[in-house]
Amino acid sequence: MNLQNTTQVLSLARHFTVLLSPTPRGARLARLLAVEWLRDQEVPYEATEAATHVVAELAANAATHGRVAGRSFRLGLLSHEGVLRIEVTDTRGEDLPRVQPSVPEGDSGRGLVLVEALADRWGVRPGPAPRKTVWAELDLPHP
């Protein structure tokens, strides 16, 4: 009989990724999938609500501004050590998002303002070409 001592490393990180079409339907599906994953992970209601809005905005931006025909965008969710990280990767790496002053009568331009208000941190990571990843982090309440 061969007995070996093995050490298991347990990771407390939980993650979810999915590729979606860069369409309004894909953006809507990103939001719906995120809600289900957050509920399965038992993320507190307030954080789930904020994260849902952040996912909706970032996915809508990927479907609208990051759209390249025939190329999907990726939604990634990661929960680790009290932080929820949301990542949306599209294939328009040359078009980096930035917060712009909104026009009161305009129909768009408020998405990143909302992300900035709801997230504790957010930013953009370029590459690898032709991609970029827009990310946001929310600090989760301690149990």
How would you describe the overall organization of this protein?
- By secondary structure, the chain is of the alpha+beta class.
- The chain is 31% helix and 26% strand.
- It contains three helices and five strands.
- The protein has helices spanning 24-40, 45-64, 111-118, and strands spanning 14-20, 73-80, 83-90, 121-126, 132-139.
- It has a five-stranded antiparallel β-sheet, covered by helices on one side.
- Helix 1 (24-40) runs antiparallel to helix 2 and helix 2 (45-64) packs antiparallel against helix 3 (111-118).
- The termini are far apart.
List the SSEs and their pairings.
Blueprint: E1 14-20, H1 24-40, H2 45-64, E2 73-80, E3 83-90, H3 111-118, E4 121-126, E5 132-139
Antiparallel strand pairs: 1-2, 2-3, 3-5, 4-5
Helix pairs in contact: 1-2, 2-3
What's the short story on this structure?
This protein is 31% helix and 26% strand.
Number of helices: 3
Q: What kind of oligomer do you see?
A: single chain
Whole-number mean pLDDT: 86
Taken from the alpha-carbon principal axes, the silhouette is globular
Proportion in helices: 25-40%
Instruction: Record the strand order, biggest sheet.
Output: 1-2-3-5-4
Q: What class would the helix/strand composition place it in? A: alpha+beta
Strand content: 25-35%
Which residues sit in consecutive blocks of at least 5 with pLDDT less than 50?
Answer: 5-10
Gyration radius, in Å:
17 Å
Span between termini: 45 Å
Number of strands: 5
User: What does the main sheet amount to?
Assistant: 5 strands, antiparallel
Name the helix and strand elements from N-terminus to C-terminus, one letter apiece. Answer: EHHEEHEE
